[in-house]
Amino acid sequence: MPRPVMFIHGLWLHASSWEPWVELFAASGYRPSAPGWPHEPATVEAARANPDAVANLSIDDVAGHYAELIDAMDEPPILIGHSFGGLFAEKLLGEGHGAAAVAIDPAQIKGVLPLPLAQLRSGLPALGNPANLHRAVSLTEKEFRFSFGNAVSEEESADLYNRWTIPSPARPLFQAAAANFVLHSQAKVNTDNSDRGPLLLISGTADHTVPDVVTRSTLKQYRDSTAVTELKQFEGRGHSLTIDSGWRDVAESVLGWLKDNGLG
Q1: What is the rounded average pLDDT for all residues in the chain?
Q2: Beta-carbon neighbour count of residue 225 at 10 Å?
Q3: 27 Cβ neighbours under 8 A, 6+ residues apart
Q4: What is the pLDDT of residue 56?
Q5: Phi, psi of 242 (to 5 degrees)
Q6: How many distinct helices (H) and strands (E) make up the chain?
């Protein structure tokens, strides 16, 4: 029986943005799936038409949703998440839900201190208005260009924006931003767990939304765990690295890492 893989998307992208990855992983002998967040409409168009469907979802709401899906599977899947999906992959792996995890440009977990200006600017569409806490927020094409598409052409960024972007709940961003000031933050991950499966962190060195320094700081949070924890950096790549024209380079690197760790 092929090993299951679960793809988890982050803010502002629809689950269907994983389709090229799903096809590649299926062709590589895995059983991939890419379920959406709780209440996420089935298509990009439907999600744009009904932003309130996902409004006010918290980190624990989304992580709990995926934990339930995982618990219903016949074996723990490999978790591959991007952005907030990366945070969920880390959190779920640390709690024993998953055989291994790959966190690509993962959102900031509790304990990570760097907060670069580019990251602050990327979060402003949601964080700039406290009233957004309980709302779903959309990015403009210009905001997407800065946050996701800064390392690709303007034309490609516009195409990605039109194909994949959806409104997303702002609440997880507020929770991650305040994580180091909240005792029982939902952005906390069990980084000390030495019994978990292997974890690969991936960063794009040109990422504005989750700058490389943030991912390197995330790696340091795992210093007390003896489980496999590695970092791979992609030079000159931005936050769109899972969906832009260079996605296959990232995906094939992940496939190679899984094989190297006996998960091929």
Answers
A1: 94
A2: 17
A3: none
A4: 95
A5: -90, -15
A6: 10, 8
Residue with the larger pLDDT of the pair 120 and 50: 50
Contact status, residue 176 vs residue 207, Cβ threshold 8 Å: no
The span from the CA of 240 to the CA of 83, in Å, is 10
Give dist(CA 219, CA 213) in Å, integer.
10
For residue 223, the one-letter residue type is R
35-44, 108-117, 245-254: range with lowest mean pLDDT: 108-117
- Residue 5 forms beta bridges with which residues? 32, 78
Domain assignment of residue 17, given as a range = 4-260
Q: Residues 186-211: pLDDT tens digits?
A: 999 999 999 999 999 999 999 999 99
Distance (Å, whole) CA 68 – CA 66? 5
Q: Say how many domains are in the chain.
A: 1
The CATH number that applies at residue 87 is: 3.40.50.1820
Spatial CA neighbour of 82 closest among 104, 108, 64, 113: 104
Token reading at 76: 């723990």
Contacts of 4 (CB under 8 A, 6+ apart): 30, 31, 32, 33, 73, 74, 75, 76, 77, 78
**Which tokens is 132 given?**
């957004």
Ramachandran region of residue 84, left (φ > 0), alpha (ψ -120 to 50) or beta? alpha
The pLDDT, as a whole number, for residue 130 is: 79
Distance CA 65, CA 88 (A): 10
